[in-house]
UniProtKB/TrEMBL annotation:
This is Holliday junction branch migration complex subunit RuvA. The gene is ruvA. Residues 70-89, 105-124 form the Helix-hairpin-helix DNA-binding motif class domain. Keywords: Cytoplasm, DNA damage, DNA recombination, DNA repair, DNA-binding. GO terms for cellular component: cytoplasm; Holliday junction helicase complex; Holliday junction resolvase complex. Has three domains with a flexible linker between the domains II and III and assumes an 'L' shape. Domain III is highly mobile and contacts RuvB. Gene3D superfamilies: 5' to 3' exonuclease, C-terminal subdomain, DNA helicase RuvA subunit, C-terminal domain, Nucleic acid-binding proteins. SMART domains: HhH1. InterPro entries: DNA_helicase_Holl-junc_RuvA_I, Hlx-hairpin-Hlx_DNA-bd_motif, NA-bd_OB-fold, RuvA, RuvA_2-like, RuvA_C, RuvA_C_sf.
Length: 201
């Protein structure tokens, strides 16, 4: 139904953003809401998820991310929230490579993905993603995270933890990561990326 929505970011929260377009605010779930800045103009590729009891919009920075998301939804055991958590790593290539290499140990690190679901992902998607995400195969996580100029890192770390909780990560996992990140001064987006890197090792 929707391909993309172009508009102004009106709100950014741990679970979703609101994009205002011609006087209408669209609530859009995204893998990492804090990559967006309130007041900025964006073009977000939309997946309209509809079931008997729910209807929601999911948004992505590129058609490739959206395409991988729809592929993940077709895997038994992965719902819309689980697929979103997988894409929150920010590097589609790492997920694709794990599927192609049958790396179950990596895939089970995502919330809600057990051995059975990881195996199902590999069975359903291996060899079927190159046309969907051709540009993502070579790149893995970027280890270099530039420090933020802002010194108010505690609020931003709190926001990052809330966003990761919304994706399904447990309090125990997040407390462990938060204690390691507490001394750093990063933006919310950078905290999320670094926390995900630590949890997916």
């Amino acid at each position: 139904m929707y391909d993309f929505i172009k508009g102004i970011i009106d709100y950014v929260g741990p679970e979703y953003i609101v994009v205002e377009n011609v006087g209408i605010g669209y609530q859009i779930m995204t893998p990492n809401p804090f990559i967006f800045s309130q007041g900025s103009e964006v073009k977000i590729f939309i997946y309209h998820y509809v079931r008997e009891d729910t209807a929601a919009l999911y948004g992505f920075n590129s058609r490739e991310e959206k395409a991988l998301y729809t592929k993940l939804l077709n895997v038994t055991g992965i719902g819309p929230k689980g697929a979103l958590a997988i894409l929150a790593s920010g590097q589609v290539g790492q997920v694709v490579q794990a599927i192609e290499n049958e790396d179950e140990k990596f895939l089970v690190k995502f919330p809600g993905v057990g051995k059975k679901t990881a195996r199902q992902m590999i069975l359903d998607l291996k060899g079927k993603l190159e046309n969907v995400v051709p540009d993502y195969f070579p790149n893995l996580f970027n280890d270099g995270v530039e420090p933020a100029s802002s010194g108010a890192h505690s609020d931003e770390l709190d926001e990052a933890i809330q966003a990761l909780q919304a994706l399904g990560y447990s309090d125990k996992e997040l407390q462990k990561v938060a204690s390691k990140l507490d001394s750093e001064q990063l933006t919310t987006e950078q905290y999320i990326k670094k926390a995900l890197q630590m949890m997916l090792r």
